[in-house]
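Now for a sample.
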Amino acid sequence: MFLQEVAPALRPKQAQLFRNLKAVGMSVTYRRAEPWESYSAQTKTFRVSMRYVLHGSRLGQAATDVGYTYTFRQGRLAMVSDRYLDKAIGSNRQPWDFGPIAVLRRANVVVIVNQGQLARAKSLADETVVSARRVRKIWPGQLQTVPYVVALREPQVLTEIPPTQPGAEPAQIRAMMSPKIGSIQPAGGWVVVRQTRLSPAQLTHALMHLLPVRLGDGAPGWLAEGMAQYAGNQLLTAAQRAKLRAEISKQQLTRLPADDEFPNSASDSISWLAVEQLIAKVGVRPVTEYYRQVARRGYNDAARDRLMQEYTGFTQARLVESVRRSAG
């Protein structure tokens, strides 16, 4: 039934796509965005919303757009292209769009790799379980219940078309977009491994960025990035952390980075110092409770500062001054 509306030349590719969907374990429906207006027009391209639910993920329905071209033949529609709208809508970038895949499924993690890469999948699954424990220790109960890790060799997976950023980070979080009209809250998130080798610190950092999937992404960038850096840097030695601190000059510690200054190595490091200082002064719980509040609702700078003082006793200005004093 899946291939009934597919032209013969496109069937091998779509058959592989169907096998990939089954391997990932998901329920899929398609909704055309535009009606077929006239049978006299023999060929027409549609923007199609692909709605999917990942089995066992405990996540809601997610969606991605695809562009399909159909022609009308012998009283039936037949798909003749699945690439026509790629650049316009950024489609064909999902994990199931890139040839044969292998999927390793455990109760608390799912890893997607290229066919023949199960050994790598097992290693990533083990590392993800350990890193997830670290994240949940800092942030109890807030991490996505089942992290989905994508480690394909194709660099285009889960990037915009064309990519808006070079994707230099060793691991990135990409959203599973919600199909709800007007919703900016993702249904879930993919952990996309961009490099062959990934350290435990880098993986822990990436998993911390899954938190906005559950809590919202309205928190200031310095807090979100600082918490991720803090979690990853806990795995470094004291000497390594001291070296990172020494690389930040006191002249740079004049303010917290603005949201539009990420990703940037100096902004990342300043954010880490700020969060580390805040946790040293008041503990993890007030910091994470503050994050929870601003992540869900965003707020302007004045409201963020008021809430920050309510939960931690610090304003941004006081925190920067405290960091400067500790830096000597």
About this structure: The radius of gyration is 23 Å. The mean pLDDT is 88. The chain is about 40% helix and 20% strand. The longest strand covers residues 43-54.
